[in-house]
What does this fold into?
Amino acid sequence: MNATNPTAPILVTISGRRVRRYLIPATASVLIALLGFALLDWISFEYAYIATYTILQYVVLATAWNILGGYAGYVNFGVAGFFALGVYTSVFNYKTLQLPLPVVIIIAGFIAGVVGLGMGYLTLRLRGVFFSIATLAFAIVLNTVFNNWHFVGGARGVSVLRPDAPEFFGTYPRYLFGVMFALAIAAVLIARAVEYSWLGRGLASIRDDEVAAECSGIPALRLKLIAATISGGLIGMAGAPFPFFITYVDPASAFNLTIAVNTVAMPVIGGLTSWIGPVIGAILLGALQQITTVTISSALSLMLVGVLLVTFVALAPRGIIGVVKSLRGPAA
Amino acid sequence: MSEDLTAQAPILRATQVTKSFGGFTAVDGVDFTLGQRERVGLIGPNGSGKSTFVNSLTGVIRIDHGSIEFNGTDITKLPSWRRARLGIARSFQIPRPFKNQTVIENIEIPLMFAVGHHNPDQIEAKAEAILAQIGLSGRRNDSPKNLTQVDLRKLELGRALAAEPRVLIADESMAGLSDPEVDEILEVLFKLSADGISIVLIEHIMRAVVRFSQRIVVLVAGKKIADGEPREVMSHPEVERAYLGQ
It folds into this structure.
């Protein structure tokens, strides 16, 4: 019997794995999205959409950053550069073709992804702090470029008028919320798929020991380049709706320090080695920041990030996920 | 015996390999061959260039001069991951496990990347077989952080073995182990040799090297000073003077 169909049990197992890894999270994500819409519709005041948009934006950014920074252990300080690429792709489109936002997001992802590949090719042979400094330099170079590119506003900036929102959403903040929700789900599903794939296993090995990984047959540079492309692309996609969110773009807002710091801090606080860490970090820290901004001040919200970051790096370097795992014991 | 083995086309041949770091020449024009299924011991005092030579063979560092051939193909410029895929595996002097992965996950990595298996069930089954072969089945789901020194050494060998190598370079696999633990590692290496893997053993424990090797190569100050059968090499006056301090 076995000889007639020897692959049958394997196919069943693989299909079981796929259901567990992809179908269940995808279904859960759609349900969460629907629930989110229903909840916000019930709350029905505009600021809830704006606050949630910001938190979801951080979910995308933190998740995307973690693909290279967390999975592979290559700390990218050039987040602001990739985000700005998305922002200015959108501004350029606004001043020229005026393509619909979803199309611009895809183009921004493509551009930022290609730039991520190029930056990775130039910098990913460096390790540790040298790589991080190189990525910071990359962001500074882009900042200089956009400061001097007058067509997209240069140093003075440019105002962006929101077009009409699609009828289904009613207002533009609701539309932006919907777009960012979809992006967040896509980013988390991609990060999760990467983590459980051969790519994720390879990146985790590189993070643990790159020389041993290469001697085990892992093409480290190639895998890091794939990670840099995916990470850069997703960060760029998160930047594309931003001009319509703030309606005035200048280099100070596109290369915002708060966004850059948060994007690195959230995965560190949530936990770097798993897809869920950045999500937890972004939701927790993003929500705390929104509450602090509204109730006390925006300056204090950034200080809160700093304090939490120092606390976690010093006391719980494996983040919230690490703390939970150690509380659950070795069997977890 | 060793003459017969090297008389065949060697599986690994290094010619005039030279590597310098700044003004210091760590490996200086070393010629080396490894026959099919041969067991070669590579010895030398600390700082003699053994690890640099091994790093050169495995592609961890680029050599300045010379060439390296594997099975007749020039691999001098190939990166280490390509050499691993061709069939050159190594263990490290200081164990370098993937510390955030379990023991079995460590073994699975070369099966996925060096050998190219894709089926998760097949990978798991093969990894379990390797764990049984090296005597680590009971530590399957442990973190390498919880392994003893001898188990870490075994894990290093297991990971190298998982790459399904034709050549295994064991870099001081027995350093710091007790006599019974040395025997355990030797037993594993003899098994691998019996399976047809050519092995280079870099070691300071002379008892183990002499027992294991069919041929011994001696490096001193980056140069090869002797190459031959164990008894012959160990009684070589230059080896006694330079290596044994007599």
Observations:
- Chain A touches chain B at residues 10, 13-14, 17, 198, 201-202, 204-205, 207-209, 211-220, 273 (CB under 8 Å).
- DSSP finds 15 helices and two strands in chain A.
- Chain A has one domain: 23-260.
- Residues 37 and 178 of chain A are 8 Å apart (CA to CA).
